[in-house]
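Long-time lurker, first post. I've been practising inverse folding by hand and with some scripts of my own, and I keep getting stuck on stretches where the structure tokens seem ambiguous. Below is the full token string for one chain I'm working on. Before anyone asks, I'm not after the true native sequence, just a reasonable design that respects the backbone. If someone could post their per-position residues I'd love to compare against what I wrote down in my notebook.
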């Protein structure tokens, strides 16, 4: 579960991490009073569970009431803005980046830090990877003073950032988080270090321990994720262009990796489960094909409990219901795969292509996404 920025800020403050004074509102009129309490000048920040708010106009240093009225109700990457946070501005001298993230494959946490923080951190990581330090953290050892100073030296952070790194580790471990990020961590002209923006992702499996955050407010979910949830589908929106549908979490994860290995980016994770009935397949494709970011779709199914001909029936049903304008690549294997391929051949939809292996299907989907 992703926390809103104001919730992450609340956690940071509880753990002694310096943050600007801030308040949250859903009222333009109340925003004026908050601005007065905070000293007049404020930064108005849309509260949505997605990145890129600044570039989308969701962060602004301007008149509080007018700016709040403009931002409330706006749409940022499919997320409607229903609340804003007003925060005291900082006189920024330098910006840094720090985070902890769970590295499942390696079986440890990873500290990621850079002396070049801010909105372009992704570009820095891509073009100058040597500017971003990646330090493994043993969960049993944690972030001691020695480990924090190791991270500081590797990333070129101010020495006083070591204390913030140790406190961020406490947030991560005590709050059952999978990700804790501060971007930017700033040094002000007065020499103070401040966590100017934060992101915290909690482990859904630990919700029973983190009840104070309550249930996620479904009004703020990604609309595609909300539509999928209403259909009982296990769907997660990603930032790519190749839609991915598979049966079984392991198969879907493998498919995401293979798509990425072909030079494309997956647009979603969608596991339709072991009992991939025609109805479930139809519902899943309807969600994936409604994503405007999707340029092609890869359906990768291994027939087991549900035979591949039933899955093919679901694909045909979805094609008739959704009327797609994006190409689909289908790979069917396992129980009744030959019959399932025949069902698709009989339908002969001009946008449907078939492949017999996962690698071939991923290469084709990537190529089609690149040319769409």
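-- Answer (accepted) --
I ran through it position by position. Result:
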């Amino acid at each position: 579960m992703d926390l809103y920025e104001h919730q992450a800020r609340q956690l940071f403050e509880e753990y002694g991490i310096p943050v600007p004074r801030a308040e949250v509102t859903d009222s333009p009129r109340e925003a004026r009073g908050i601005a007065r309490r905070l000293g007049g000048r404020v930064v108005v920040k849309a509260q949505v569970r997605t990145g890129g708010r600044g570039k989308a106009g969701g962060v602004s240093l301007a008149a509080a009431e007018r700016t709040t009225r403009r931002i409330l109700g706006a749409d940022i990457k499919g997320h409607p803005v229903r609340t804003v946070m007003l925060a005291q501005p900082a006189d920024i001298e330098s910006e840094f980046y720090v985070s902890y993230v769970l590295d499942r494959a390696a079986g440890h946490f990873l500290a990621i830090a850079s002396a070049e923080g801010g909105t372009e951190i992704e570009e820095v990581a891509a073009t100058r990877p040597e500017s971003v330090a990646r330090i493994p953290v043993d969960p049993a050892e944690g972030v001691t003073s020695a480990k924090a100073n190791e991270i500081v030296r590797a990333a070129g952070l101010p020495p006083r950032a070591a204390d913030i790194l140790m406190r961020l580790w406490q947030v991560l471990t005590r709050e059952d988080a999978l990700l804790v990020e501060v971007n930017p961590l700033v040094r002000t002209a007065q020499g103070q270090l401040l966590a100017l923006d934060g992101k915290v992702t909690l482990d859904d499996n630990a919700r029973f321990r983190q009840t104070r955050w309550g249930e996620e407010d479904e009004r703020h979910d990604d609309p595609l994720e909300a539509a999928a949830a209403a259909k009982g589908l296990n769907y997660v929106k990603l930032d790519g262009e190749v839609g991915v549908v598979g049966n079984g979490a392991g198969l879907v994860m493998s498919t995401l990796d293979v798509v990425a290995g072909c030079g494309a980016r997956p647009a979603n994770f969608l596991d339709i489960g072991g009992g991939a009935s025609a109805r479930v397949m139809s519902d899943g494709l309807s969600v994936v094909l409604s994503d405007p970011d999707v340029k092609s779709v890869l359906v990768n199914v291994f027939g087991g409990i549900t035979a591949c001909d039933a899955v093919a029936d679901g694909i045909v049903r979805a094609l008739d219901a959704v009327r797609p304008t994006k190409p689909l690549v289908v790979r069917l294997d396992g129980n009744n795969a030959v019959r399932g391929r025949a069902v698709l051949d009989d339908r002969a939809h001009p946008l449907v292509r078939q492949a017999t292996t996962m690698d071939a299907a991923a290469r084709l989907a990537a190529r089609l996404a690149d040319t769409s």
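A couple of notes from the structure itself: Residues 92-213 form a domain with the D-amino Acid Aminotransferase; Chain A, domain 1 fold (CATH 3.30.470.20). The first helix runs from residue 5 to 14. Happy to go over any region you disagree with.
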